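One such given next:

>
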Amino acid sequence: MKGKKGIILAGGTVGLISVILGYYGNPGNMGYCIACFLRDIAGALGLHRAGVVQYIRPEIIGLVLGAFLISLKNKEFESRGGSAPFMRFMLGMVVMIGALVFLGCPLRMVLRIGAGDLNAIVGLAGFLAGILVGVRFLNKGFNLKRNYKMPKIEGYIFPAVNVGWFILLVTAPAFIFFSESGPGSQAAPILMSLAAGLIVGALAQKTRLCMVGGSRDMMLFKDNYLLLGFVSIIVVSFIGNIYLGFFNLGFAGQPVAHTDGLWNFLGMAVVGWGSVLLGGCPLRQLILSGEGNTDSVVSVMGMIAGAAIAHNFGLASSPAGATLNGQIAVIIIFVFLGIVSYFNAEDLVKTKI
């Protein structure tokens, strides 16, 4: 799994698995969506009460545990943290809000492109624009300072939490919420979803697969390694959707999507910019969480909180389009990202310690 062949194979496998999960019951063009699945988990835990998006997604659990197990096997697991934790929590929160204005994370964006959803092309343009802004601040010395080695138990906690989520999923106690209609009620079989997550988690850990990293590295270093994984997902999912009859070219009538181009663009611009500041897309944050990086765990917790806020305060879009509250939130988030980027860019602000 080394070199460019490895990342191409990993990306293709992710694309294929995503199409298969869609065939066996996951929502349309949502074989895999980190933002959507974390939102569903937030709903299942009662953090929001949007009844159509409540389910403990085994794919997320598998991602974390797959990365955890392979990093242990390869002696790459290391508990580290302490780099601007509250800032990372807030960035995770705003990345999630941007994703729910678009209705998908970067991974779902490329899967939507592979299924013919032209709204996702608009989202991709915004995503790249956001990454470009983030890269400009990286060039000005942006960083959230170093992290530190921590006791191993710190890194074990989040994988253990995911095991707990799986127990709640299969035992289904009364205090856990499960959708009876809508996207949250649509799911592939539990063991299939868990296995898919384990495979994707292991591959992503081994190859450093990241939707943001590919574009960032190409802009910064002219390095197309991670970008090849990005492209491979689109190509394989395109072929799979054609074969299964899921391909639908156009803007209208796409599953769990809206045609409001401006807010598709701006929502994904938030995701691109915020993810560059975090050092990776939502998928990458989950993989790092499985490797023992508690900074990424804090970011993921911010995403879960962001999902709750998005649905409790009417920020999340629907197939009818972006809400007014969501539009206002995106504007506020751009101001927030600008402030965070400026004051953490060492070449722009000289701080005395």
